[in-house]
Specification:
Membrane topology: Single-pass membrane protein
Number of domains: 1
Protein name: Leucine Rich repeat-containing domain protein
CATH topology: Leucine-rich repeat, LRR (right-handed beta-alpha superhelix)
Order of helices and strands: EEEEEEH
CATH class: Alpha Beta
Shape: globular
Organism: Oesophagostomum dentatum
Number of helices: 1
Strand content: 5-15%
Oligomer: single chain
Strand order of the largest sheet: 1-2-3-5
Helix content: under 10%
Number of strands: 6
Keywords: Cell membrane, Disulfide bond, Ion channel, Ion transport, Leucine-rich repeat, Membrane, Repeat, Signal, Transmembrane, Transmembrane helix, Transport
Radius of gyration: 13 Å
Main location: membrane
Largest sheet: 4 strands, parallel
Length: 112
């Protein structure tokens, strides 16, 4: 995904780009999508997430399941203050999650 690719979709609330063979995300690919609350990127070919991937202040649900991640860094999720749901299921190559990422899970609202 190239920088600014979705910049004209400022009012969009839901984006489903699952099953698109996406392997790389440029910094700023989601720039300007300030109203996005749900992003589905399941079953792509993402191996890593750059630190400035998600400037999405309203995002509440992020589905990254089925991607071949090897490791995840805390910086990849720093700009998601309202995130409530993160799906990493079926990321079979995921071998390491940075310890700081667990802070995100602790501060995430839980539904019992």
């Amino acid at each position: 995904l190239e920088a600014g690719q979705f910049s004209s979709l400022r009012e969009l609330e839901t984006l489903n780009i699952a099953d698109n063979l996406i392997s790389d995300i440029d910094d700023g690919a989601f720039f300007g999508m300030d109203n996005l609350t749900l992003l589905n990127m399941t079953n792509n070919q993402l191996v890593r997430l750059p630190g400035n991937t998600w400037p999405l202040p309203m995002l509440r649900s992020l589905d990254l399941s089925g991607n071949p991640f090897v490791a995840l860094e805390t910086a990849s999720f720093d700009t998601l203050p309202l995130l409530q749901f993160l799906n990493l299921s079926y990321c079979r190559n995921l071998k390491a999650i940075h310890v700081g990422l667990f802070y995100l899970f602790v501060t995430m609202p839980h539904k019992m």
